[in-house]
TrEMBL record:
Annotated region described as Disordered, given as residue ranges: 1-88
Low complexity: bias regions: 11-20
Name of the protein this chain belongs to: Gliding motility-associated C-terminal domain-containing protein
Composition-biased stretches (Acidic residues): 1-10, 21-38, 53-63
Length: 203
């Protein structure tokens, strides 16, 4: 058992309001710590360390193990793909089930050369349901839109950027774009700020 779960130099048992005169990390009066996690029953559950009657004796507030057998009983939808069911997401201190910060202003390098490595623009989380109304525009250095799609998807090969133009400008539709730097604008379609950055194509 980790005696100092937040690594601040003070044992959990003391932070939990218990007496630990001998410094062994155990409650001096075990009758005040029903689940044996080192946190007094009077404050257990108030600070995200589980509750006083947690039968699986863990301190994970996001663990919906109601049976106490180590099996997560609520394996419901996980909208943001963080491994935590929506029913308890937001209780973990890491935001809610829909995390607009999942998609950031990033720069990308793609190499659509058939080696199956970085052959297309992979945008993390873009296939989450809350982003299905997104619009992606890719612009060349002269300011011309060379690629535009509504509902960009890493999964759907018809809606992902593989270095091929679908816009007008000096490049014909379905032409491979030349090696170089391009700029993108990604509107997530949910009112959050537009994401921007550059994409380097290397063949």
């Amino acid at each position: 058992q980790d005696l100092d779960s937040d690594d601040d130099g003070v044992n959990d048992v003391v932070e939990g309001g218990n007496s630990d005169i001998d410094g062994d990390g155990q409650v001096d009066n075990p009758l005040d710590d029903t689940d044996g996690d080192g946190i007094a029953d009077s404050v257990d559950g108030l600070d995200g360390h589980g509750d006083a009657n947690d039968p699986d004796n863990d301190s994970d507030a996001t663990d919906p193990d109601s049976g106490g057998n180590g099996v997560v009983t609520d394996s419901g939808t996980d909208s943001d793909g963080d491994g935590i069911a929506d029913s308890v997401d937001g209780l973990d201190g890491f935001g809610d089930a829909y995390d607009d910060n999942c998609i950031k202003d990033e720069n990308y390098i793609i190499s659509p050369n058939g080696d199956n490595l970085n052959n297309y623009l992979h945008i993390e989380c873009i296939d989450n349901p809350e982003y299905r109304n997104n619009t992606l525009e890719i612009i060349n250095r002269w300011g011309n839109i060379v690629y535009r799609v509504k509902g960009y998807s890493n999964i759907d090969s018809n809606k992902r950027f593989e270095g091929i133009s679908n816009g007008r400008a000096t490049i014909s539709v379905d032409d491979k774009l030349p090696v170089g730097t391009y700029f993108y604008k990604l509107n997530l379609g949910n009112g959050s700020p537009i994401r921007k950055g550059w994409i380097y194509i290397n063949r």
